[in-house]
Write a structure and sequence with these properties.
Distance between the termini: 33 Å
Strand order of the largest sheet: 5-4-3-7-6
Helix content: 25-40%
Structural class: alpha/beta
Strand content: 25-35%
Largest sheet: 5 strands, mixed
Radius of gyration: 22 Å
Number of strands: 7
Order of helices and strands: EHHEEEEHEE
Number of helices: 3
Length: 159
């Protein structure tokens, strides 16, 4: 069975837009690069041709990747919205009870995760620990670097 990719409606639209661009504009650009490189003559020692063919291979790889994601995409539903619980697509503010420091994260599917931008996958140790919690509830994260306690301060949903 193929892996499911949990993504938001916004991410789905972004991927569809990128796929359209790659299959039209970018594909034509690379075809023009290959045609120009062929015009230089002998292909066996033509670095421009090799570079264009490598770019074409990367393009087709990315197209295949996006098509696979779209074929197995599961759109994130706001199943926890009414209950106020942490779920996919929500933002959660948590507090470290030891330091009092508060941080806000967005809970996403693995395709959208970007820890540097505070977008945490529901498949990560933190994501698995916090999903389903409500404000005021504490939870333990079992991370590779060690276990630590956090408290949910607030849960919000972007419209």
């Amino acid at each position: 069975m193929a892996k499911e990719f949990k993504i938001t409606q916004l991410r789905l639209a972004d991927l569809q837009k990128e796929l359209t661009y790659l299959k039209t504009t970018r594909e034509r650009e690379i075809a023009a690069m290959i045609a120009e490189a062929r015009s230089y003559g002998d292909l066996s020692e033509n670095s421009e041709y090799d570079a264009a063919k490598n770019e074409q291979a990367k393009l087709y790889g990315r197209i295949a990747e996006i098509e696979d994601i779209l074929a197995h995409a599961v759109i994130i539903e706001d199943e926890n919205e009414a209950s106020g619980r942490v779920g996919l697509g929500c933002s959660v503010t948590v507090r470290n009870p030891e330091t009092g420091e508060e941080t806000t994260y967005r809970i996403t599917g693995s395709q959208e995760a970007d820890p540097m931008a505070y977008k945490i996958s529901d498949d990560s140790p933190f994501g698995r620990a916090v999903v389903g919690k409500v404000p005021g509830e504490s939870f333990r994260v079992n991370a590779p670097s060690g276990s630590y306690e956090m408290v949910v301060v607030n849960v919000t949903r972007e419209g």
